[in-house]
Amino acid sequence: MQALNGAILCIAWIVGLLSTAHPSGWMGLIVLGLGLMGMRVLSLRQPWPVLYLWRRGPKVVFWLCTLGLALFASLYFAMRTPTPGPRDISRVVAEVSRSPVIVTGTVKTMPRLTRSQNIQFQLQALSLRAKPTQKSVRGLLYVTLPPKQRQTLHPGQRVEISGYLYKPRRSSTPQGFDFEDYLTRSGIFAGLRGKTVTVTQSGGSWGGWAVRQRIVRSHARFLGPDKGALVSAMVLGHRRVDLPFDLRNHFVKVGLAHALAASGFHVSIILSGLLKVTGRLSPRTQLLTGLIGLIVFALLSGFEPSVSRAVLMGMASLAAVATNRKLNPVGVLLVVAVVLLVIQPQWIWDLGFQLSFLATLGLIVTVPSLTQRLDWLPPAIASLFAVPIAAMLWTLPLQLYQFGITPIYSLLANVCTTPLLILLTAGGFCSGIVAVVWPWAGSLLAWLLVIPIQGLVWLVTQISQLPGASLTLGTISIWQLVLLYGLLVSAWLLPIWKQRLSLLMTLALGIIILPIWHHQIHRFQITIFDRATPPMMVIQQPGGTLVLNSGDRNTASQTLVPFLQRQGIDQVDLALATDLRPRWREGWPVLLEQVPLKKLIPISLTDNTAWQEWILKSQVKPEQLRLLQVDEQLIQTQTQINVLRHQPTLLQFTVNQQNWLMVAGRYQSLLTWLQTTQVPSPQVLWWSTKADVEAIAQLQPQVLILTPRNIDAQSLSQLERRIPQVWWTPRDGAVQWTRGHGFESTFPLSENPTSPL
User: pTM for the full model?
Assistant: First the structure.
């Protein structure tokens, strides 16, 4: 009973933190707590068999204490949420957001490459210079620098960086990555888009960063930069190593992301190796050796949430081995989770922490039963299958909730690569430790891994290129997530389900597939993205998906592709390109790598040489391309498209019996053209070029969507007085139209986030 009560209290702390997802979450806690107390009271008054367990369970007073603990956890989360101090640099962003500044500070983290090949790191700000003021400031800054500014930057250096300050925005793309929330959890409330950097003080030449760099350079000496970085990532985690993004994407696509994230997989390999080496020594020596190994691993890889969880559980396992005691692994996992969430409650929303916790729980409670069902296989082979299946079962619902995609060949990839991963992780750890003392010897040991690392890269690449390597289902709702984990927990705790696994799997598939299928066949939604150049839109309708422009490489990979995947779109039926200048052509190959494309139609293209060159270099097949002329009409299921003009581009859409008009491109006497040409007055006008109040008023729309960044307040005010609905995406975020709800924006109208220059 004491173990049960302890587990309930741990779960109460976790549920209390999870309730902070909604402002009224505390009310849900009260309702849940009163319901549990009511069940206890009812079980004492009614001798129903179904309430038998409640009669033997905790008393009302205990449930009341549990409710109080959960409410305190939600309050504790609010108390520990980082807020900017009175001298934080974020408080002066509004004053200098459009002026160049020079920030002096200390480098806090090792600079790393971003997907856009910029340099990013954290800076502890000390002073700010901006004409005509200079002031002392405090707080962390998220700094990005151009690639050409990459110097020998490292933590501890004092630097001066010139650039522009900005406040990070929350996600403006529906279900997109919330950059503002991500930085806030780290106590960062402002960013600096740097132009140049000058080192004023060199700082120390030794520290954790130096040890990690020594290991990375040692691995790369004989293995090469890419394969060396891969071995280093298996030891230090990909967050500490500049691993090529293409290679990382292959691992993620086949379900091997855990191999690149320092976690329990690495801890288990390190511990098993150390225990095997010290098997003939005393338990005390085994314990000491294991603790040293775990501490070294934690220091090298950093105290990330998944690393901290794995190391603490590893220490508990070591203590059990040394004292010859049996541990309740689920209880240890709950205690470790609560300890970490007391130290840092913000980790409750860290995806790495969530996946690590769920995967470990799956291994503890599901692997034994799976191994029993695979008893017709040799034990080693049965374990090879049971471990990835269990981890996948318990992490799949969260992956679908967050990303909407699942790797099809995850089991195949894990079974084929596990021996190589074990060898490379153990070998990389040993060579890394040797490299700290003698870099050349560490490089020589790493060179012995050349054949396994080549085999691993080849296997992962081949599996990722198999047809249908990932299944795009679309994100599931919170209620689907709760129901799926409810089924998993019931399959673990209730013996009746162990005899009815086929029924359980049918229910789980129904919970996932039926709502997604209903949404797919009935969806009719238009999304206009903010801050996209050229203007970008996705039309989702029964029978097909239309994409207007893909943006540059970064926009396509970080905004468009994730949006399509979360919406469950596994194929684009029609794509329109209004601007095929070199930069805006780069997004289409990125899109094609992830989402098949049936047809691409350029609308505004005058350079035939560039057209032919792009056909040869892109992944678009010639039969997929055609040029749309003025006054030519396209019909895509329930949407009609007509080109009215090329420069600037005027596109007329008839959507759901509504007349839409898009204006984009370079402005050339549009008002004169409108006065001499009969253009039907649109119900919805999407204006994505230089704002012209008179030209917009000439069209008399009922709804106006403005995407230009620079609109003066007077012009915006005039338009809002003349037109019933005005949406300005730099202020309101992405704008969505649905058949049932009309127009909605990502940001509330009361907000006016400051965007970076």
Answer: 0.86
